Amino acid sequence: MLELLQDGFIRHAILAAFLAGVACSCVGVLVVTMRISFIGVCMSHAAFAGALLGIILGLNPTVVALIFTLLAAAALGPLADRGNFSPDTSLGIIFSSTLGIAFLLLSLVPGPKTEALGLLWGNILTVGKMDIIILAAVMLAIIVLLRLFFKEVQTVVFNREMALASGIPATAVFYGILICSGLTTVASLNAIGGLLVFSLIINPAAAAYQIAPDLRSMFFISALFGVLSGWGGLWLSCLLNLPSGALIILCSTLLFLGAVTFSPKKRPWLADAMSREPRSEICQTGDRNPEADLHDEPETDSRQPCSKSALMEE
Amino acid sequence: MGNNAYSILIKDVYAAYHGMPVLEGFSLQVPEGELLGVFGPNGTGKSTLIKVCLGLVPVTSGEVRISGYRMSRGSVSFVRKLTAYVPQSFDVDRRMPVTAGEVVMMGRFGRMGIFNRVGPGDQAAADDALHMLGVRHLAERTFGRLSGGEKQRVIIARALAQEPRILLMDEPTNSLDWESKKRMCSLIREVHMERKLTTLIVSHDIDLLADTCDRIMLMEQGRIIGARNPSEFRHCCRGHGHS
Predict the structure, then answer these.
(1) What is the SS3 assignment for B225?
(2) What whole-number distance in Å separates Cα of residue B136 and Cα of residue B127?
(3) What ipTM did this prediction achieve?
(4) Which residues of chain A make contact with B158, given a CB cutoff of 8 A?
């Protein structure tokens, strides 16, 4: 195993798995919490269709893939906002359209279709320096944007209408999320493949959703799961001499199943134990004006359980 | 009264929602400091009224002024910082990784602006709102796992954390049982008085409006058809067999 690390292409693959794992899983957190998971599927097929068009026209497939995904992202927003369709319906329409275009273009690719099919399945073992640079740039951009705009993202993810009503530029944040998912998909196309990249976007984030107590830790857990999926799949691929893309996705699926099975959110007592402050049976009266009676009823002081309010509210 | 004396001034507004006309020639004036209720059956345009005040639904004609500022594309972002919104419903998954305390703090983010971080003043405003609504002990709990009444109080706390001039509430007792409704009525009144707000509540809940509001406007088919004081309103509704 250690001898393999001497090979440059293995080191590239390990690095690509790390970068793609982090980038895809961070975008996945946004997509999963906003319940627009199908966007990963739409973007991957739009990217695949664009890359095929690039091959047919003799242009850089990555650049044309990027243009296609940005056009798809730009179409999703207005369809969801102004149409009578829910975002899922809009995504379904764009997905079927891009899938049709992709397979039409695949049939038009001249000569052997090896390069085209490579974009569909991906091959992390053949990524080059330019793929690594693009992946690194996209990953860093996503991390920097999340750092700068975390509070805006958190507010939009919670409830987009309330975010807009409170003065947050929710529409810009939403379109930003769509564009970032498009960029991530294109950057991961060669390594993971158009057919499978949406799984690397969704699965680690969905697994983290089962575990994370807050949004910030969800990003970290999702990234960890994304990297473990990438490295796990790569290791199994070397061990078993099987396609790396498929194994990466299967690893991410196993992590998701494990997270669902052992999720503390299915066990309220465990979730309470894991939360930063366990559920308190005591109502805190606070140290504000003792004359104020806005918060608790007179019978619930700091020494008694807030049983009446708990009964009323539960 | 001059235009600037009204916290909310809506003049001959026509507004459509998903292509269907909802408000037609609608006018409303809410003086500063008033707690006004708007009563009407479902589908009469009450929620659209709130969204017009927030600029979430565009008006095809007419004028909307909030605290003297005319609602336009250029001013809507600023105006939204003067108002706080408590929606009718908020669909949040039980597993959504956000705590009640974080939800309340979100109320500060619109005021803070982009690139700015949470400061001591923001934390103090959020803590104050949590305390006022009696939900400080829930701050570390996952929001999705709270009861309906607790969620409602957290959302109101979030609205107060914004330190608004105007509070807009859409069916605030929608998901509450009778006992919780009574508590919510007194809570809304106390919050309105303590924070010196102008409050607009739209609801079909007679008891909420009669127990809480200074004045109640009656709304039907996108228009105001009358105004009542609370006792007249309760008598009028009982007489028409509303429960």
Answers:
(1) strand
(2) 7
(3) 0.90
(4) 162
